[in-house]
Amino acid sequence: MSHTRLTHALIVALALFGTLPAQADTLDKIRRTGTLTLGWVGGNPPFGIATPGTPEGYTLDLCRHVAVDVQRTLGLSELKIAYRETTWDTRFTALDNNETDMDCSASTITRDRLARYEFSPAFYVTGTRLLVRKADKIRSIDDLGTMTIAVIKNTTGEKLVVEHNAAASLGLTLLHVADADAGLAAVREGKAKAFALDDIILYSQISAADDGQTQYEVVGPFLSIEPYGIMMRKGDARFTDTVSNSLRRLLPTPEMPALYQRWFNTPSLNVPLNRLTKETFTTPNREPAFP
User: Where would one find the signal peptide in this protein (predicted)?
Assistant: First the structure.
């Protein structure tokens, strides 16, 4: 290769290098500032709840446990925890812009997200199931042939119901509703025999309704499997390992069932510990959502 061509190639390489994003070193930033910033989404019980002073929730408790291990890893005598409330959309840009260090909401581990972000092992697994009247004795979506099912447009629930309806030739009629409240109302008023959505949201609806526990139930196998994990920036292996190892040590301990009971079995919410979440406690993993 001639000197001129070599020089040109070097200039191009340097120009390309200059366009690449610099790898974040979150642990160094935390050591320098003495602060770990947790992103969270409010109005999302039991994962994130706005309370006077410090926000509370299942995920936030887990992230505060991780913070203790981060402090220990860095050998800091004190570590301040800052909280930045985000939305379901801005949780991504907050990480991208170094405004938060961890997303402590309820982010599903998906294949697409794994290409852009790092995740801890899963700490909760949900999926699409059905809310029905107990009196109707419906056990799964296959019991709904030719009946009406309520779904929210552009949700995983709608997509899965459409696909299952076509594959099993059930002849279902879809009733589109605006939100979870409207889905429960459709079942209560007889406009639909079932309402399909993430089971944690369905359980929340049942718990909040005056007639919830006596009249309704969540049934059927998962139509999807959606594991939630702590989301972090890509390309920061030291921080990802610190967070993931902290959670990996915690999950198999008796602390996790106790923490689960604190947030999921309360006077206002009654969500049984499902088999898949129990398995993530005993065998920590970050397998992505399916399908």
Answer: 1-24
3-state SS assignment for residue 137 = coil
Q: Is residue 8 part of a domain?
A: no
Closest CA to 30 of 59, 67, 65: 67
Two structure tokens written together for 261: 């009971």
Query: Is position 1 within any domain?
Result: no
Cβ-contact 243, 102 below 8 angstroms:
yes
120 & 28 share domain: yes
pLDDT above 60 for 186: yes
**What local confidence, expressed as pLDDT, does residue 246 receive?**
98
Q: Is 68 exposed, middle or buried (0-12, 13-18, 19+ CB in 10 A)?
A: exposed
Dig out the tokens for 253 from the structure: 């301990």
Q: Domain of residue 102: give its range.
A: 24-126+226-282
Structure tokens at 132: 């029905």
Last residue of a domain, one of 219, 248, 264: 219
Q: How far is the C-alpha of 236 from the C-alpha of 242, rounded, in Å?
A: 10
Q: What is the pLDDT of residue 139?
A: 97
Claim to verify: residue 28 and residue 122 sit in the same structural domain: yes
What mean pLDDT is reported for the chain?
A: 91
Name every residue whose Cβ is closer than 8 Å to that of residue 255 and which is 6 or more positions away in sequence: none
